[in-house]
What we know:
Layout: E1 6-10, E2 16-17, E3 33-37, H1 52-55, H2 79-85, E4 94-99, H3 105-115, E5 120-124, H4 129-139, E6 146-150, H5 154-164, E7 168-172, H6 189-206, E8 210-215, H7 226-231, E9 234-239, E10 246-254, E11 262-268, E12 271-274, H8 278-282, E13 293-300, E14 303-315, E15 323-326, H9 330-344, E16 351-357, H10 369-381, E17 389-392, E18 394-395, E19 401-402, H11 407-416, E20 421-425, E21 438-442, H12 445-453
Parallel strand pairs: 4-8, 4-9, 5-6, 5-7, 7-8, 13-17, 15-16, 17-20, 20-21
Antiparallel strand pairs: 1-2, 1-3, 9-10, 10-11, 11-12, 13-14, 14-16, 18-19
Helix pairs in contact: 3-4
The structure holds thymidine-5'-diphosphate and magnesium ion (MG).
Magnesium ion binds next to helix 3.
Amino acid sequence: MAKVKTAFFCQNCGTQFAKWQGQCTACKEWNTITEELIEKPEKVSWKTSESPSANRRTKPLKINEIDATTEARLDTKNKEFNRVLGGGIVPGSLILLGGEPGIGKSTLLLQIALQMPYKLLYVSGEESQKQIKMRAERITTTAENCYILTETKTQNIFRQIEELQPEMVVIDSIQTLHSDYIESSAGSISQIKECTTELIKYAKETATPVLIIGHITKDGNIAGPKILEHMVDTVLQFEGDRNHVYRILRAHKNRFGSTHEIGIYEMLSDGLREVANPSEILISKNEEILSGTAIAATLEGIRPLLIEIQALVSTAVYGTPQRTTTGYNAKRLNMILAVLEKRAGFRLGAKDVFLNITGGITVDDPAIDLAVVAAILSSNEDIPLPKDICFAAEVGLAGEVRPVARVEQRILEAEKLGFATIMISKYCKIPKMNSGIQIQKVAGIEEVVAHLFG
Ligand code: TYD
Ligand code: MG
């Protein structure tokens, strides 16, 4: 009987070891190393018949001689998705889409597969063809060229691909795939690595883009492997609060575009709707004016976005005051509270402070600081802010109001949405704009307080 080959893999970073050890020497995690069966026959190729790479040699070329005419990207017919990718799908690229279970990964990629005017193969290891059909019926009725395959064995998938010759392949999900060349079970590090390698080979040799869905673990990493992220060209993350309808698509890595862009979707009963004007949905349309809310003009990528910040300041009932944030950095909130205490004389030390960014999105743009300050003060004083004012500035430790990047864009967006006033730092250099919005420049926290509540 042939000897069973095994190796040890760190389940966190994917490093391979010859024997078991308690701590991974690569990523320093404890108890992450497990034994997996491996069995590697002579070759590994996406094609079962021949190994094309063995005969084909690539020659070095002078960089000036390389033809750089950008290959036409595939239009996904989904503006948000195109934008996040940097203008469509690059032929031969591998795109990994991560996200929590139930967030809508399958829905998003199926919807894109149904919309695209290319011959597509959607491979699912998670749902039956019937289930996918039911889902597709919810989403759309127009789909001529989308093929569904339920299969988990890569060799069988490649056999179907060779027959069908699709122009794009979607894999749902990499954790369900299984290659014959490796003995260990589906979802293990060595299987994921092997299946991804085979897919990369296929994508690069045929210039067919492959979209892969990957599950993520509790701590937000794509299950199994950081290595998976290194192997693919683009890593997208689909995120959002499952209790909210909004979903955000971000690029964490992109070899063919920037990682600053985001795409916003709304999960409806008939699929994901692209949200073209996010500011409108992120600001609640309450008729009555409430204390404790302020609007921040922030930027996501190159897109200006107006969001609503809500604060609740109340006297702490129990000994230690609570500080809770949703969508905003908790340490930054503590810093802002300390600045308000020290520089503006507000006694917030014995108060509970809750801060919430509406819509379930997370923002790390420092330009929302001033709106956070305004919301906290408004709640503390129980005086509502005027409805038509918004804020775009960072707050420093000395209580100074600091300028932020691309303030003109924020001003234009605020004006577009009908705000009458925007409060920015005195030190912002803005070109002369003949805009209808009033620009209020402030230098420090005291001045903000005087303007808003004075
Ligand atoms: P799904 O795409 O299966 O998530 P994932 O693949 O990331 O695990 O999304 C499942 C959720 O989406 C489920 O809770 C139902 C909801 N949904 C809608 O609200 N509208 C729709 O049209 C579809 C297809 C799903
Ligand atoms: Mg799914």
